[in-house]
Amino acid sequence: MVSPVLEIPEAVASASAGTEPEVVVVAVTYNSAAIVESFLGSLPAALKGIDSARIVVVDNASADGTPDVVRALAPWAVVIDAGANLGYGAGINVALRQGVGARGVLVLNPDAVLSAGAVRSLLDQVSERHEFGIAVPRIVDASGKLKFSLRREPTLLRAVGEAVLGGHRAARFPRLGDMIRDPEYYVHGATADWATGAAMFISRRTLDAVGLWDEGFFLYSEETDYALRARDAGYRLTYVPDAVASHPGGDMERSPWLWSLVAVNRTKLYRKRHGPVASAAFWCVVVANEAVRAALGRPTNRAALRALLRGGVL
Hints:
Layout: H1 10-14, E1 23-29, H2 36-46, E2 53-59, H3 66-73, E3 78-81, H4 88-96, E4 104-108, E5 113-114, H5 118-128, E6 132-140, E7 150-151, H6 156-165, H7 167-170, E8 191-192, E9 194-195, E10 199-203, H8 204-210, H9 222-232, E11 236-246, H10 256-273, H11 276-294, H12 299-310
Parallel strand pairs: 1-2, 1-4, 2-3, 6-11
Antiparallel strand pairs: 4-10, 5-11, 6-10, 7-9, 8-11
């Protein structure tokens, strides 16, 4: 049973038909009927302080009636049926081709719940300094505990460090780990090479410079690629702790298919940015990492190893 229609955000109500809104909020859904109500319900408060906004939900051929649920709950949202499961980056591009906000676009996972005023805080941060092109919120789990969402650029040495030490231990050494796990780093204005993609505010100037998302990444690594391309264009990713997104996550750690996507796309991203010799070495390290853990009987690592050796994910 679908709940009553949710409150229309003031920013959506104030947007004039045919005019460019200040901000566009984009979410890509896939079988999200059970989680999308909390996401949509958080938007009226999250958009406080935004003059005008458009909410765009792109659905990747859900089998659980997600588009109908969104239309019933939020008739004020624009729902686009992609017609197939295009992947995350391609779904975002469907929305971006319909138009972007005058000040920027907020990309959100449909299971992310934003705090009041979060969008304004993110927008203010990218408006404060020209080099800030992407702003990300503090990500917390269901209990409100900080999730370490900031990351360093993947390198061959970091791949070795994570293979030998494990991701959490390697994170203690900046040259050896991608993840930034020092809680003292998570302060206003901190910067990182990239961040987990549950919530990313991208300024209009960054969108104009970087363009669309790379659709070659079906799922995972597309946010890494976009943040690194933004950095290449001179725009940094910055952290805004007073904007909060509650995001459970963790699906990839339980799903062999999703873990395989993570592993394969890590190598694909590295290959996109480096030469063949370095890319081959990186692939070998990732394969060795998955093989050692697969030998311990972990089904996620076994699936990833098979996918890496095939050169893709089936």
